[in-house]
Amino acid sequence: MISLVSKNRRKPYKKILSSICFALLVLLCPSLRAQTIDDGIMLADKTLCAGAIYTHDSWNQYWEGSLERVNGNIGTITTQTITMAATYGVTSWFDAIVNVPYVWTNASEGVLHGQAGFQDLTLAAKFKAISVPVGHHGALRAMAVLSGTLPMTNYTPDLQPLSLGANSKTISARTTLNYLGRRGLYINGTAAYTFRGNVTLDRPSYFTNNQLYLSNEVAMPNQFNFATSIGYRKNNLSILGDYSQQQTRGGGDIRLQDLPFVSNRTNFSKAGATLKLPIPKLKNMQYWLIYSNTFQGRNVGQSNTITTGLMYTLPFEKRAKP
Amino acid sequence: MNVKMTLKPRGLRISIPRPISIAIVFIFSLASSSCNKDIPSTEVLPAVTPANADATAGSWKMIVLTGPTQVPVPSPAPTNDPGYQSELATIKSAQANLTDAQKTAITYWSSGGVLRWNEIMRELAARSDLPPSPNPDGSYPVPNPANPFANPQFPFSNPPYAVRAYSNVAVAQYEALKVAWYYKFLYNRPSPSKVGTSIQSLMPTTGVPSYPSEDAVEAAVNTVLLTLLFPTSVDEINAKAAEQQQAALLSGRASPSDIAAGVALGNAVAAIIATRAASDGMKAAAGTPAIWQALADGATARGEIPWISQDGPPRPPQLPLFGQVKAWMLTPTDILNERPGPPPSTSSTQMKTETAEVLNTVNNLTRDQLATVYKWADGASTPTPSGHWDAIAAPYISAASYSEVRSARVYALLNMALHDAGVACWDTKYFYFNPRPSQLDPNIKTQTSLPNFPSYVSGHSDFSAAGADVLSYLFPSGATYFNAQAQEAAMSRLYGGIHYRSDITVGLVQGQRIGEYTVRFAKTDGAN
Predict the structure, then answer these.
(1) First to last CA, chain B
(2) ipTM (interface predicted TM)
(3) Can you list the domains of chain B with their CATH numbers?
(4) A118–B contact, CB cutoff 8 A
């Protein structure tokens, strides 16, 4: 983890700083979707947390159905994302969240054209439903999050794995259980079910699930995911171990030597770690570094994902309060 | 926002903000409206009531057969024959107990077996349209027709394979139906629903005599040929064929003896076509490493940069001798005569200009142009370009309310022209062995998968111009649309970054010229 910090800090740093200036100007804030929607943290009343987060995701091995392989027609697929995000504590029990990601994709081998553009706008409402003090040790809280995504541009979902995304409107319902101890013990569990709207292709028929569909409309299977984190969180410092899983409730497998398809059954398990550090001398600024590895999956790449960025919070002190 | 209900039972603080419930209702209403997930896998087609029975179709010009009597069909038993009467009794009792599945099948097949079988075949072609996956050593396994279920499955239904398949099935079906029509109007046996007054007619009345059954002819032709062409789908093929025959029986359209005669006729014609196909040159079309090398050496000897495979790892060229496969309307000499002049030299200024145009185009696409690329991608897991043109023809055939034999004529003419365009195109491609834009300029990245064969001329342009030419002759009211589709298909390959402009313009001309061979046949085939 430490070596990763020094390796990855320098390059994205400039991009992120300039992005942050922009974000603050237009009152958009970057925050990583996962870290604000599925963590157990509520912002204090009338607090804004904003920033720009850079994500670098790459894989050269992938699961074609359940077959693990590499593919000389794509080499390594790299997806880079800058997410501009903002979370605002409307009240002490209600946070509003906005994420705006810009995505670049690239294949290191073969002749396929990478794609770039704005992907899906995320809007979320996070509610603190229950808060239970656990003696003098800490507090247990339950949260509910309702979120939706809306493609911001008419990007194609039909050039997987280089498409920017699935171009599907989605709605998610999430619940989160979180324990934060006074000495810094942080335990978080979260689960979500995502309804995904049909996707429209630019072609009149498509083959998936061993069937030719004579339509340009693709039914997208819904998804279930859950994640857990455990670690230390105190005084604006977080050190967490993370584990997450996604299950897609239907969809076909990628066939031998075929391209992936937008409605494929994409399942995965990821493990990783999160580090959030206060930055000395820069008041209210926090540095994020998150790493995850996809170690098991179906119809997905064996991704190594590094997320890094800066988050600015106003007022900062209240945020860490259990 | 400030509305909340707070409960404080013994230190437990529960906040249930009202907006949550509002939001939940909102979310679920949105979810239910966005989750209508039923996607049709078959075309919704109306039942066809033929405007014309085409009583003279038995005398229309044959393509492979010498004439209708080449396949004898014995005369049927008279309708007062006790055996036939007991067939009617079987139908009557079956009609009294129709299951929902049987009713659905009757509705499905009443749209016309020719249209349905083409729709089924497009699915089979798409299912088999996957290139073999490379071996660990970088070589590629070859699909083996003797062991079709092994990896890689047989066939790899690439564009040449598919167009030959569509054309063989379409021609066989057309020939067999012309023979059927000859005997139908020779023997004039009415349908069971007309003979037996207590038998319902559950499909539209066609005005066509019932013996031999056209549904059975189609089922048999398609069963024999599709099983040869797409052996891994044999179960599905047999199920569809059985369903079509049963629907003909249960609907009161055909008796068991009508069906038996149709199956025998269909099998006989399918065997004739299968024999022709077995010696049409397809078996040798993959070539050998020595032939592949000779093609590259030929281009080098002419001072040109030869095409190389840009698949990873490099893949043998796709069916390099398909240009020598037997065509339907063109002789081998015609194919050579229709071979266009050479593409711009790979060292010429024009080629530099055209390559630059591809780079500039692919890097500055509008969203509409990108949509065109995907619409016409017709790559892996699709019915291929010829299947795309069959799909374009389908609504025109359906709307025309043709008899089965005339519907079959449309697909026979269309697919013969598509096949011949494919043969001529492949002859041209491998004669010139011209590199793709992304080979001449590695900065060119494509918006669709790069086909694994030489560039000049564009297959999409060739196929589409031939298809549009034949369809414009058959459906003049659609000519503007068909030609616009052909232009769009052709240009999609420049937008996709996989063809130069000259591949497209020359391919369109060649395709249109090839299509005219079929149109000239159609003008004198006796069906007009």
Answers:
(1) 75
(2) 0.91
(3) 57-278 (1.10.606.20), 287-523 (1.10.606.20)
(4) no
